[in-house]
Amino acid sequence: MPELQSVALKMILDSAATAIRMRGQFHLVLAGGDTPRAIYKQLRSAHTDWSAWYVYFGDERCVSPTDPRRNSVMAGETWLDYVEIPADQLYTIPGELGADLAACEYAQTLNTVGIFDLTLLGLGEDGHTASLFPGHEWGAEPDSPDTLAVLDAPKPPPQRVSLSAARLSRSRQVIFLVSGESKRDAVMRWRAGENIPPRAIAPEKGVDVLVESALL
Q: Is the pTM of this model over 0.70?
């Protein structure tokens, strides 16, 4: 298993074990995209108390519930359909309703959720994370809403729902998973201090960034 995957897998399971031991529940926000796929597949065989897992999504595309572009479809096909997390503890974003209504409904879902235990995020080649894009609204202010309706994303489909930077930051741990040669420029911009969306994710304990060594 590549090092990024093995380290990420251990960090996720360690976070779950700690949360379950201390609070009896593990609240996890999933990233979409290609980088987490292999990690999610590895989680199928993890030894953990799945009944204590609560799963959310950092963003979603506004397409039909079975569209393969949906993050929830990818997570289901690679991992969630194979484990015994109770169905009512899998909180998918209803993107099929359109960005405005789906953002509203998911905000209601998150109303009763406190601090996430772990949030997984990726990095796009343009510097975006979740569906927070450069030059668009990120919801970084402390009083920002939990969810944002994205109506004009620069990548298809244009309509998406994203958790705001402020809500993503309300997590005990945040891990960025970054792989692929196409991300090199975005990594360099981030390291140089450019104001791109990942810089707006600012949990109390900072973020962990797992990057393929070839990109450093």
A: yes
Residues 6+ apart with CB under 8 A from 80: 40, 55, 90
**pLDDT tens, residue by residue, 89-116:** 999 999 999 999 999 999 999 999 999 9
Cα–Cα nearest to 84, from 36, 52, 116? 52
Q: Which two tokens stand for residue 184?
A: 């090199």
Nearest to 109 by CA among 96, 93, 95, 86: 93
Give the phi and the psi of residue 193 in degrees, each rounded to 5: 90, 10
Q: Outline where 27-151 has alpha helix (H).
A: 37-43, 71-78, 99-110
Q: Which domains can be identified in the chain, with CATH numbers?
A: 3-215 (3.40.50.1360)
Residue 2 pLDDT: 85
φ/ψ region of 50 (left if φ > 0, alpha if ψ in -120 to 50, else beta) reads alpha
Percent of the chain with pLDDT over 90: 94
C-alpha pair distances (Å), 34 with each of 74, 77, 124, 174, 179: 9, 13, 10, 18, 9
